Amino acid sequence: MTAVLAILVDSYRELIAKKLFWFVLAISLLIVLSFGSIGFNDKGVSIGYGIYTIENDVLKAESALIRPFMDFAFASVIVSMWLAWGAIILALISTAEIFPNFLAGGAIDLILSKPVRRTTVFFSKYLGSLLFVFLQVAIFCVGVLLVMRWRVGEWRWPILLAVPILVLVFSYLYSLMVLFNVVTRSTLPSLVLTLLAWLALFTLHTTDGVLLTQFRIRAEVDRDAYARRIEWYEQRLNEAAEQGDNDAVNRYRTRLAADEASLAEAQERVEKWTPISQAANLATLLLPKTSSTTNIVQRQLQSSSGMTTSSLMSALNGDQPGPAPQPESYENDSQGDMYRRRDQEIMRRAEEYENSRPWWKIIGTSLIFEGLVLAVACFIFVRRDN
To answer: Is 275 exposed, middle or buried (0-12, 13-18, 19+ CB in 10 A)?
Structure first.
């Protein structure tokens, strides 16, 4: 236990001694200060601690949308762009040389000259490296928590969930870099290979999301919309026939025939894209899910505020969030309105699908991948020069 603690302390000292550690911390604090500059008054949103005001009738002081708006800004902008990308890239750069330096220059011989198992050394160095992200994200989230207490008027405790979540996301990628470290014993190739692997994972998951949202869900939305329209036109057709309105009967029959053809085409698209989307999802089942893991923070904040991103966007645009577009709207709305309603429904269903995925499955399958990678890396580490 003493040896493990000594390795952890050594890793901690090595990390905070790096200029990049303080550079990342400075950027994080700057982002916290910028986030805190967003305020709300009787005219709208103030920027720069009251220097400039953006007039907005929806986001004013005491508005019920302030809390979900600030939650959205934190989860969708700050977490998704800075913590999940910028900070992690810099963390990978900072920790890229830990294992190569340890394996070179006699450092490992010094440690192993003591009665410490190689596996203990390996996992102690690995956990020590995770300290970088833990310290950075913890300081950052505490700062954001204080900002939210000031601007929103309450403690938004789900924000602290970002600390373990971002450490998890980093660990998925760092396990790969450790594997590349022990294989190549070199810093730069390991870092490049890790970033390329991350890019490949991002591409696979993006493709999965596009297939789901832009093809499968879009086809399902069109199918359901045409089915409702057909039912609605049939009712109007019967009413017109009972009233003896032949012009209306002919008009509704023409539209009914067109929608029946469109329904058949939409159903074909559903049958085509559903198995493709399911196959793409299955292909990523045991791969680390960085984006979905990060999204757990937003899901928790949404659950706490009671407002999803789609409903928030509708409220900010002055629309009333509601069910799918109604058939009668197509009689009165412009084509632009029709497309806007459809896009809102696609966004709502995609968000509903993502939020329905169990968090334990997202994290569990990612940890299985990480465990397998670490097992291989540890095996190579233990067997090398043994």
So the answer is: exposed
